[in-house]
Amino acid sequence: MEFATGALSTLLPKLAKLLKDEYNLPKSVKKDIKFLLRELESSRVALHKVDKVPLERMDEQTKIWARDVRELSYDMEDIVDTFMVRVESPDAANTESIKGLIKMMVKVFKKGKTRHKIAEEIKEIRERVKDVAERRDRYKVDNINPAPALIDPRITALYTKTTNLVGMDKAIKEVITMLTEGDDMSMQQRIVSIVGFGGLGKTTLAKVVYDELKLQFECTIFISVSRNPDLKKFLKNMLYELDNEKYGNIHGTELHENQLINQIRKFLVDKRYFIVIDDIWEKSSWDIIRFTLHDNNLGSKTILTTRNSDVAIAEQVSCSYKMKPLHPESSKILFYGRIFGSEDKCPEHLFEVSEKVLKKCGGVPLAIITMSSLLANKREDKTQWNEVCKSIGSGLGSNYGMKNMRMILSLSYYDLPSHLKTCLLYLSVFPEDHLIESDWLIWKWIAEDFIQPWKKGDDLFELGQSYINELVNRSLVQAEMYSGGKIYGFRVHDMVLDFICSLSGDENCVAMSHDIQQNISSRSKTRRLSLKHTTWPTTSMSHVRALNIFSSDIVHSMPSLSSFGVLRILHIEECNLKDLKLSVGNLVHLRYLGLVNAYHNELPVGIEKLQFLQTLKLCLSCDLDILLPPTIFDLRELMCLDGIKCYPRQGHQLRNLASLRVLRELHLGKDSAGAVEELGHLTLLRELNIWIKEQMGQSLRDTLIKSLGYLQELQNLSIWQLKGNNLEWERWAPSPRLCSLRLQVNGPLPKWISSASLPHLSYLELCDVSNVGPENIQVLGTLPALCHLTLRAEIGNAKRRLMQRFMFSADVFPRVTECYFIRVVAVPSMLPRGAMPNVESIRLSLRSRDFFTDGGFHLDDLSIEHLPSLRWVVIDLYTRSSSEEEVTTVKEALNHAAAAHPNHLRIIINECK
Description:
- The structure is a single chain.
- The chain is built from 28 helices and 25 strands.
- It is α/β, with parallel strands linked by helices.
- The chain has a 17-stranded parallel sheet, sandwiched between helices. A five-stranded parallel sheet has the order 2-3-4-1-5, with helices on both faces. Strands 6-8-7 form a three-stranded antiparallel sheet.
């Protein structure tokens, strides 16, 4: 499905399906359906043409026609879906066989009342389709000639850092100086504001300074406020970020603002903290937030970013840094670097138009990044580049404003293929500065039918990942990365969000809480509803397909869910649902049910009736041990089961869930024999998380290894088990598609861990590995895609194993950025120059006695200058059998090595016995 064509892409196949003989439709109805198919197919072609014309360049008649066709398609799909649910539901047929379903369909159609109703509804739709077809001809919609959008193969890498910090060196130094000025004389708190209009890079600057200094502080958080904030929710978020274990259930509490402020102050009273408060719009918000920042005379620091100059110089702010546009030379470096690699690689025939584009961007980083991403997807055609340049307007240099930035964003939007426009506009359901988790978003896209296979065998989830990669590559969203290199989530810049919210409202794609009545015209129905900070709208809920709620203030005034007759998506996030009984059994169309960070002490009622449910995500913030009901194993359409314990017992048919792609929190024990065997039937699984909290017999452990061997589509696997279960990992042949692997090994390093067996593995965590030595590390260092490694040896490994001199090869760990060796004794000198070129943080285990015996090791072996990207070091120093003087000597050598490194490393030394 695409917003441009409404529901036509999914409706047309459903109409064609109704023509089959087994549905026993009257000839007159079949004739009407054939007419609908012809006319709606023509309308779909016309809508694709309309979609390529910017709204501001489209005449009003065409806008109204396109809106009416989309509304018509949604209405008709609702009718067809409601009918199909009746005939395809297992409850309707009371059987699992296809023949049983067909018999039930025939019975339904033989009932005169039902047949008459279907015929009347199709007849009414036919008249509406005939009307829009006549208007299409009258308005000559088919004659629209949109400008072609040529998309080249990728020129820039998917994960290129968007700003590369071009032209920010001076700003970084100035802000750091403002924060640290006078530290040698006073330990008073310092608060620095960064002020400037949208798109100048305030958040980027604050984040760079934060990353540069955070290791010097005991307590650090980076948190956003945004426009029209719910300050009570913000304060709860602040507590959660400060200590997510202590305040894990804070969102489910009923506390006043002053109580939350007092809790924050109490937490910070004895801590040296560094806090960044991003995107404060109003002074009234700062007047409350500032009371949380306890001035405890420990040298704490705070940065706030704002567009409002009154906030920038408000009470308690020590000094302010005013953002400036990039210098022309820096603008060139950023622009040419993103498109060609450097200025000297720009083709001569594009140099003049490039300079014109740069001038119009006016040194605004967001404008430069957006334009360069757009032009990077164009062929090196001077005509196209000139057209883009002319489209921007009169220029941004001397008169930068939202109107001109909107022109730039509009160019990027209309350059997107239709399916990406749909996916981008859908992001308007989320609040400002919200971290949008990729996995959850993709499952929503799938539930909305936004993702359609291009060819037989296409995996819808992987297509969704490619959509996100494309949006990141075009700089329309800002990626947040796993340490393994995967995009786990992203944020939308507030200027981009403003643009897509405005466009979404114009197109009636998503009705948003802050201006819902204005966005819903009298001739449009609410199809997707996003409620953030408001009361419930008065509009009818009967046509709502997606309901997203992000505010506890309104969730308790929610009307009965039975009024949402065609609801496909129900997502409630960070809401207190205590004492609220959610009954979802009547939502027969529901495909996605998500309760995220929602305080609730029971499961929604009626989940077992949702026979078309694809995604069930229940991340509940409560202390209760909630298990899924046994009836969950009858939901055969389920593709994602996440966030709650799945503990199959005797008689539970895990094999029924054969459509599962994601299964998190699968709990196994001594009575899980049937489930362990049936796990091997879930051959579509791509992500699996297993907890084994009971001792299992040898036969059961062997069956588990055998079942895992059948799961050759796995990309992410986590298995945690009790000590003593000792699964025989050598008998397992892992999926070659594995990207992330987390195992509690309880034995030696498996021999199948090699570059040949695991070519795509980027994240590896191995715990309780026995007899670990340098030779094992050498093997792990050959994994070509590895970005994160945690190798945790069994208890006692660091004490027992003899230290030996070993030199790794110079090409080990080529992509690793995080490397943690726990209870594994190794010295930095074992890594030759060239090894670990990208490692930013490392953890090593050392024994102080090894530097004062005949083992051949010296304090010079602690030098780490040859690791060029290193920022942070943790040393577990085992001091047994060493004198206090020897321990002090080793610690001094370690501190000297950290200080001598060009990056002036932060080092933490943990003394262990």
